[in-house]
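tl;dr need the bound structure. longer version: we got a ligand (adenosine monophosphate) that a collaborator sent over and nobodys looked at where it sits. i said id run it. heres the input, straight from their email, havent touched it
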Amino acid sequence: MTTFSSLGIAEPILTALTDYGYEIPTVIQEKAIPAGLAGRDVLGSAQTGTGKTCAFGVPILQRLAQKGAGQAIRALILTPTRELAIQIDDNLHAYGKNLPLTEAVIFGGVGQTPQVEQLKRGVDILTATPGRLLDLSGQGLLDLSGVEIFVLDEADRMLDMGFIHDVRRVIKLLPQKKQTMFFSATLPPEIMDLVDTLLHDPVRAAAAPVSTPVEVIRQEVCLVDRGNKTSLLLAILDQEQVGNALVFTRTKHGADKVARDLNRKGVAAAAIHGNKSQTARQESLRKFKAGEVRVLVATD
Ligand code: AMP
């Protein structure tokens, strides 16, 4: 059985991974970590749930720590959504807790001042969404000329969300010579074009998710009249085995209505969707994680 220590990971990171509850590496980690540590480019076909954050995070932390802490941004992770950016940054903090490196995250939808202040204090590893990154770069508030390691996360989602031009703009701001780790669940032609221009002799690593939802989730369909939907939802939530629940609705308006109806019936619920401010979205997620809110109602 492969262990984390057999992958060449240094002691401070091994300890942090153990503290975080990781015992054995996932498939993508087994393949990508040694390649990343050796400074090779990596092409990972992997989606969220495969452990890819640790697969690119560990090589970044270890390679930068070997050189000591600096002032410039030396690693950049580009990811499509704010929530992913926050999650990646949280993970990097955890994996790197025994190292003298500084991580920071920037994304849109919130004021830029705290982010700019943080950048001024010096950041080794920056996780960002493309829009805010270009915005701050355009204002001359961040310098990417010292980036040694670049991660493009969820490249196919960048394409789906219409961010691919922004991604290309960001790439132009980076030095030619760098290590690149590229992750995408699928590799359509537009993505392969990017792969060909960006990666040099990459090590390929593919992985299925740790567990696919269909394997662990019992799925059921209930046919119900519109007027009885709330009662049915309440009956389902009443079942003993239902702790927290995530409810999806088609529309933002629908999400607000379901959350309101549940709250009226005494079930603590919050809605999360694109019309909510970033602060409100994070607050709903926090309350859900903390158990203060039992049901999170979301659009996709
Ligand atoms: P990711 O695909 O990076 O978003 O990771 C999916 C989830 O798996 C996260 O909750 C990680 O903390 C967790 N995870 C990643 N690698 C491991 C591992 N080797 N052992 C246990 N959990 C892991």
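gonna send this back to them w/ a short note. The mean pLDDT is 92.
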